[in-house]
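re: the backbone from monday

yeah here it is again, tokenized this time
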């Protein structure tokens, strides 16, 4: 059984690596198709042809596209990400504090939303068609239909401007400063992301739990005289969490892109502001690296979800044995 699970994990890892390779090709092709010339964006429209040619040669922009791609991909693998066209600093030095801040924001949102979603979904299933189930389903449906910027705007109105003025409307965190140094400034971005994820996961968890509670093996466990708590935690929950893992992964991966909107809304110094500035200035190395990071988050979260689903679901472990 352990060998089968190990083979499954290795196959998923190889598939993830292949997916990232294909995504890297697409990212490079799309950035190369941008309408403006990076050299002209850096030097301005009044730059001489000689100056533009010299800058293209310096950054390798005059080389064939295949050579540019292999050089870029090799740099990503070895950690040499090149130089930012806009700031003239190494991309890793420019991006690292912003990536760290964004991942911290995502981590806090995930640690809050995942257990909350599971608890809400499980309790709604246990109280099926009751007041809690009806009200939680209605609220989650309403919240799921609202984009992040709408949720963020409403939260800002409630907690920062019109109703209560208890939280800052924007963060005052400096680039490179520890994200936890502005706890109040983190409150609204984290709450916005939490609301963006929780409704979807809780609804899937409820549906999975309802299906499991009506299954034959749960009924058999009850007939054997097991108390309801043992039936819930030993038999129902492990099989219900599996399907929810996939949705959790998709939503966390979605947050890697959705965090850009939230960061711009609250002036959070993460990848959102860096990506917006890079697109504006046609800073190709920064755009490529950030896009690859977001794609990597998608691949890694789905990989972990696939592995986690197998490990926590007894039926899937049995199939692999």
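seq for it, each position gets an aa:
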């Amino acid at each position: 059984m352990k060998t089968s699970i190990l083979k499954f994990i290795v196959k998923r890892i190889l598939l993830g690596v292949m997916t990232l390779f294909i995504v890297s090709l697409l990212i490079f092709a799309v950035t190369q198709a941008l309408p403006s010339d990076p050299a002209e964006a850096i030097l301005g429209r009044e730059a001489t042809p000689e100056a533009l040619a010299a800058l293209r040669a310096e950054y390798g922009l005059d080389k064939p596209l295949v050579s540019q791609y292999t050089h870029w991909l090799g740099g990503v693998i070895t950690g040499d990400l090149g130089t930012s066209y806009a700031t003239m600093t190494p991309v890793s030095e420019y991006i690292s504090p912003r990536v760290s801040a964004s991942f911290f924001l995502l981590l806090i949102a995930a640690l809050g939303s995942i257990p909350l979603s599971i608890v809400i979904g499980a309790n709604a299933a246990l109280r099926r068609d009751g007041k809690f189930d009806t009200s939680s389903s209605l609220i989650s449906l309403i919240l799921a239909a609202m984009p992040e910027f709408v949720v963020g705007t409403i939260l800002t109105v409630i907690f920062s401007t019109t109703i209560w003025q208890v939280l800052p409307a924007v963060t005052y965190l400096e680039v490179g400063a520890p994200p936890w140094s502005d706890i109040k400034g983190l409150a609204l971005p984290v709450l916005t992301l939490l609301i963006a994820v929780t409704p979807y996961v809780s609804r899937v968890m409820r549906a999975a739990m309802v299906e499991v509670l009506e299954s034959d093996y749960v009924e058999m466990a009850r007939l054997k005289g097991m108390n309801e708590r043992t039936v819930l935690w030993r038999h129902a929950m492990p099989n219900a969490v599996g399907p929810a893992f996939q949705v959790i992964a998709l939503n966390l991966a979605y947050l890697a892109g959705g965090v850009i909107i939230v960061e711009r809304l609250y002036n959070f110094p993460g990848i959102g502001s860096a990506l917006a500035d890079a697109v504006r200035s046609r800073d190709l190395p920064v755009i490529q690296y950030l896009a690859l990071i977001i794609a990597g988050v998608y691949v890694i979260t789905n990989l972990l979800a696939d592995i986690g689903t197998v490990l926590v679901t007894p039926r899937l472990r049995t199939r692999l044995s």
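The domain at 12-320 is CATH 1.10.3720.10 (MetI-like fold). The chain has one domain: 12-320.
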